[in-house]
Amino acid sequence: MRKGQEEMKNEIQTHVESKVGEIKDHVNSCIEKIEEDVQSVKREIGEVKGEVERKIEEVKEKVQVKIGDIEKRLSELEDRPINFPANPDLTYSRPMVKSLTFDGETSWTVFKTQFDVVSSANGWNNRVKVSQLVAYLRGSAVEVLQEIPSDKLTDLMTIENALEARFGDSHPTQFHRIELKTRRLKPGESLQVLAADIELLMSLAYAECPQDVRDSLAAQYFVDAIRDEDTQHATRLMDAKDLKSALAYSMKYEAAKNVSKTSRNIRSIEVENGTGKEKDEKFHSLLKTLEKLLSSHVAGKKNTPRRNSNMTCWKCNKKGHLQRECQTISPNREKLMYGRPTGRRLPFLNKAPEEGLKVSALCGGRNGLYLEGSICGIPCLMLVDTGANVTLVRTDLAQKLKENFIYTAPNISLKTATGEKAEIRGKLDVAIECGCRKFQHKIYVADITDPCILGLDFLQEFNFTVDLEKNEIRTGGEEIPLFSASAEHSKLRSVLAKEKTYYTSKIGMPYPGSPRSFWKIQIHRNGLS
Q1: What is the mean pLDDT of residues 56-85?
Q2: Does the entry feature the keyword Coiled coil, yes or no (predicted)?
């Protein structure tokens, strides 16, 4: 039985394999047929495509020929004048709009805008625009055509660019911005005129800015241009976003302000108190005292013995008074010294001498340190005195610098550390030269021994630094040597300090007589300490 099953199985397998082979052969034949059909379709498509491309080329050539013929005919029609009368029933008559002339005095931007509108309304082409624009030019505007080459005179863009470069509003932008900043409401000018002018200047100065930015700037410039403080303050607080809002609010505020200007009657009142009566009583008592003094003075004059009428004044050689009572003004009394009268003092100058101007001594002596310099080109030795709070110049040297004199009242005195006093003669505004630098400084004129004394005011103002170890003074990186003026001190070799001490004018240096000393110095001369 098993053997029969195996035979049946083999038969079935053989039958299936035969069927599968047949199916494969059929499928392969179908695929080959489909491929042949596809190839034939491709060949047909290629043939159709080639035919279509040939047709397109033929149509394209025909269209190009037609377009060329049409353009040629259009150009001939434009150049050919119309010699036959137009039928009024078939044609539309459009009114011609005339434009103004341009002579270079008016705004080119405004004229250009007007010309564009007129040319559009009249239907002009570029060739007609050129002829019309040239015909509208007058005065200095016509001279621009001489700068254009002859072959470019028919080019509209070339002519417009030349006129724009000569008369355009794009170049003076900075000028319009400055005019905006300085624009103010003129007397008798209304706010509307001011707003219109600012709006025009804004369009010229900030043409490239967005509209919202221009509106905000115009409102700010309008508020700044209002002269009335109350109106300007109120409009500024309103914080307008554009020019129209600011104009409307300012006009409303001014109208309300004018209406509110009504006459007000002020009622007078009287205040009575004891303070006023006390003041009146004191005033009356003082007045009585003055009257008594005056009467006693007059009585004293009457009781004085009568002068000899034959006495002669030695000043004016007239009789009846003495020289000290002479009222005659001599020419010498009007003579000016350093720019002020020398013969008499003005009443308001007769005050007590002012305190505060100090100097160590009127003479530097043997221990003074000097530097070489000049005052307004006059060479001199300058004593460096850190105990002086002012800079001084000798009187005879100041007489050579009269043109630099600054008038000073003769009520200022100079005080030394030892208690001596000297009168200040005046004040000069001079150029002090130390080393390679010049310094403009105001100095006092006094009767001193040295030609010039440099005080702390000069040292502090120009940041001088005194080095006592190296015997030099520094400013701005320059080192200026200090030395003794006397021949006896020419052998000075060194200045030694217990500590290395630099004095800077910013810190301050005590003058002789100060309760506190900041340093100690030894000077070795001739080998002796």
Answers
A1: 80
A2: yes
